[in-house]
């Protein structure tokens, strides 16, 4: 069996790794949100600058089927853009306790649990009473909670990245298609 120092070291490493995974998810979400916004700016901004929507109106007036195809691509682009941004923003959404018993628990590590103590003196007296078994239990519960949070964050990051890849392709297609509108006028 491992001694208490080794157990504490292992749990401390797992706790730090879980915190780092949450930070990594947040960093990826920031990057993804920036790229999604950039793609929207490029895709729709280019269309506005080249008077593309006016040209599409002309195509509609001439009953050209290309106009409806372009409108469909634009709507799909907007839907994927908004979906990607929503998936990314959900990464930042605060998480609820995984287990019902965790909601009212007074813990030693997580600030939400610490704030359930009525004063800093009450928290300090709880710290003084901690023994090896209680320390292991607190670490284990907090690591589990952090791991569940990281899992949720990465689920939304993955959705966001899939949508981002699709959106990049749509943006490129959108820009190429924009160059061909003049041929149909």
From TrEMBL:
Where the record annotates domain Pycsar effector protein, the positions are: 11-176
Broad class of where this protein is predominantly found: membrane
List GO molecular-function terms, semicolon-separated.
nucleotide binding
Q: Which GO terms describe its biological process?
A: defense response to virus
Query: Where does the UniProt annotation place the signal sequence?
Result: none
* Localisation: Cell membrane
> Keywords on this record?
Antiviral defense, Cell membrane, Membrane, Nucleotide-binding, Transmembrane, Transmembrane helix
Protein name, per record:
Pycsar effector protein domain-containing protein
* Species in which this protein is naturally found: marine sediment metagenome
